[in-house]
Amino acid sequence: MLAAPVTHTALPLAPSERYDVVVDFAGLPPGSRVRLRNRLGAGRTRDVMAFRVARRAYDHSRIPEELCDDLPVWRRSQATAVREFAFRAGHTAQGRGWFVNGRLFDPARTDVRVRLGAVEVWRFTADVHHPVHLHQTRFRVLTRGGRAPLPHDAGLKDTVSLRPGETVEVITCFDGRRGRYLFHCHNAEHEDMGMMANLEIV
């Protein structure tokens, strides 16, 4: 969710990330075909969809200059805790597994307990690519690899894509509802092999 539109020429998209986009095909002649491809895919998972430019037409729509005027602003100085989470592969008695802070998912275990309304900074570190998704909260990216966030990190998110070896800091306020929720890697095979943890808001 953005306060104002952001122009991109490229937009990386990881599993569970969502963007509302307006694509401008005005520079392409009729008959052109534009393919949306999964650069990490192969075979049937590579080509996602195609757009065919059929004719020239005038677009009377316009993108508003302001999208949302009441996005929350959280400051690092408000944070009551800074937590670190390592998303890494490892070995178990049954073979390979995917861990959060060295632990496989246990549905009966509470991994993190936070107070309703608390502002916290969470620092995620990845061994390979991990799109980290938090349930029941949204966050802002503070830093990526110790530097400023990238353009596609703007706004409120519920998933952040971590590249191999990367550390990303996010800030959030747990202002939803009390209860138990998940946070996990959104690569399906990673979460299926244990890369999830339980968050309890009290």
Amino-to-carboxy terminus distance: 26 Å
Widest sheet: strand order? 4-3-6-10-8
Strand composition percent: 35-45%
Rounded to an integer in angstroms, the radius of gyration calculated over CA atoms is: 20 Å
The name CATH uses for the topology of the domain at 76-201 is Immunoglobulin-like
What is the average of the pLDDT values? 92
- Architecture (CATH level 2) name of the domain at 76-201: Sandwich
Q: Topology as H/E string?
A: EEEEEEEEEEEHE
Largest sheet: 5 strands, mixed
Low-confidence region ranges: none
CATH class of the domain at 76-201: Mainly Beta
| The CATH H-level homologous superfamily of the domain at 76-201 | Cupredoxins -  blue copper proteins
Q: How would you describe the overall organization of this protein?
A:
There is one protein chain. The chain has 202 residues and is mainly beta. The chain has a domain at 76-201: Immunoglobulin-like, CATH 2.60.40.420. The protein is 2% helix and 37% strand. The protein contains one helix and twelve strands, in the order E-E-E-E-E-E-E-E-E-E-E-H-E. The chain has one helix at 188-192, and strands at residues 33-37, 47-52, 81-92, 95-100, 112-114, 119-126, 130-134, 139-144, 159-162, 167-173, 179-185, 196-201. It has a five-stranded mixed β-sheet with strand order 4-3-6-10-8, with no helix packed on it. A five-stranded mixed β-sheet has the order 5-12-11-7-9. The chain has a two-stranded antiparallel ribbon with strand order 1-2. The model has no long low-confidence stretch (mean pLDDT 92). InterPro entries: Cu-oxidase_C, Cu-oxidase_fam, Cu_oxidase_Cu_BS, Cupredoxin. It comes from Streptomyces griseoflavus Tu4000.
